[in-house]
Amino acid sequence: MTALARSATAHLWTGMLMVAVLLVWVALPWFLSRSAIDILVFTGIYTIAGLGVSFLLGQCGIVSLAQSGFYGIGAYATAYGTTVLGLPIPVCIVLGMLVSAVIAAAVGVPVLRLSGHFLALATLALAIIAHVLFLELEWITGGTLGIGGIPRISLFGFTFATPFRFYYLVWPSAFALLLAYSLLLRSRTGIALRAMRDAPAAAAVAGIPIASLKVRIFVLSAAVGAFAGSLFAHYVSFISVDSFAIDRAIGFLLIAVLGGVRSIPGTIAGALFVTAAPNYLSRLGDIHPLLFALALIVAVIFLPGGFGGFMANLGAKLSSGGRRPSAPAGG
Amino acid sequence: MLATRRLTAGYGTVPVLFDVDLDVGDGESVAIVGANGAGKSTLVRTICGLLRVMGGEITKDGRAIQSEPPYRRAELGIAVVLEGRHLFDELSLESNLRIAEAQGRKRREARFDFRFDEVLELFPFMKGRMSAPVGVFSGGEQQMVAVARALLLKPELLILDEPSTGLAPKVVREIVGVIQALRKKGMSLLLIEQHIAVAAECSDRAYVLSLGKVVQQLDQHSWHLPSTTDALARAYLGNRT
């Protein structure tokens, strides 16, 4: 078989696989219980938030634990905007993203000058500050009482009121963002990011404005996190400060690491693990956090490239019949 | 073109360079020689902005640039080939070059306008290998990629840090050929080189750096005397080449 024919066949297979995945995705809620669909909805929401964290970590080497803060800002913006100010939902969602973006830009400039452990600790501090503010700014957030009665999202008279319906809102959003991030990675900016990751000194002297590029990606990640937070608020219709604590920040980072930080689609697998594993393990009783931790350790040891890296390796092996060494997971 | 005055720089709070005065004139090629640990690479990293200045001044055409970030210095026409090449290994040759080309395009009124195809002519081996990741290239080829990348930034001053280190003699001749071609074009060069003979061949004047200080300046005449280069090689580098 010529190389051309082989690549055409490979494209055909990829195309068919994608159609199959799409069909399964569309059909899935019809065969699942309400609670299983609920898990998938959360998987979608977390995929969106985790995407921002994953891209920051995998493409810019920035460990961000601050995502729970931006997620919270998105959630509170839409909750406060719709229930107190009576603004339309789309306006509130955009507002939350803007507020997050502005805050990310303001804190990103000083914080992103740090690197390694110091950067991680600084973003952890941001998450803690955000959590305290959510608790203390009661006139906006309702403190521990939270905000209830957040309206459901409607589109053309169709209300996304049930998990079943919300599934068809959250996943197209997640897929659109996955696609957008994949395109970003292939764009000139994406190439500059990979250059910066491979050889930071050379990237700097090659004229890449490293500091501002990092801040821009951080701002994007914050806006995406806020969007996920807004979806969350409209889905559960009641939010309180407990949803935006440090464990959520760690959860988002886990999604990135488990999904494989170099793999954009891997984020879905990471989000599924972080959403589903605690849920199903909790049925085994009080031992569930321990089992979750064990599952995490096993995943990290046996899948160093995350689920995404594993799938990319598998795909490379299958498509070459095992002749080619594993390709790097290029997202 | 480039000047440093009482330049002090180093790592953390520890200075490595002390009061370095250096000039590179328009169209001039200046060499910096000195033993390992003399501060040559520190000097390069300070000039291009990777290390912060602790004292003194760096000027480009009379304008102080020591507080500009690295990418701004690239925009002002200073390009550098760092020691050890520092390529974007995972990216293809084409991506490596296009990144620099995109930045170089911002320099509209550049004195030396290296277009993509002109650079390829300078390095014929690149033709037909554009999609290969540069990590698989040989050491000499990688050095050429690093030089090509620097040229695409359309610099007025090109800084080369140890361009011949670790390369076979034949490849060193090729690099020398490229450097001579750039000199003929009138580009200003700052050349850091352990290989004294190569340094002398490729430059007009030289500074000798020892323990972070300029200990000797050699004008065109004395720099090219065989006795000088021999003495230098013995005194600072512990070899005769």
Automatic annotation (TrEMBL), chain B:
Domain of life the protein comes from: Bacteria
Keyword ATP-binding: yes
Coiled-coil residue windows: none
Any one GO MF annotation of this record: ATP binding
PROSITE patterns according to UniProt: ABC_TRANSPORTER_1, ABC_TRANSPORTER_2
Keyword annotations of the record: Amino-acid transport, ATP-binding, Nucleotide-binding, Transport
Key word Transport present: yes
Gene3D superfamilies with a match to the protein in the record: P-loop containing nucleotide triphosphate hydrolases
CDD domains: ABC_TM1139_LivF_branched
Record-annotated ABC transporter domain positions: 2-236
Cross-referenced SUPFAM superfamilies: P-loop containing nucleoside triphosphate hydrolases (SSF52540)
Pfam families attached to this UniProt entry: ABC_tran (PF00005)
Family per similarity comment: Belongs to the ABC transporter superfamily.
Name of this protein: ABC transporter ATP-binding protein
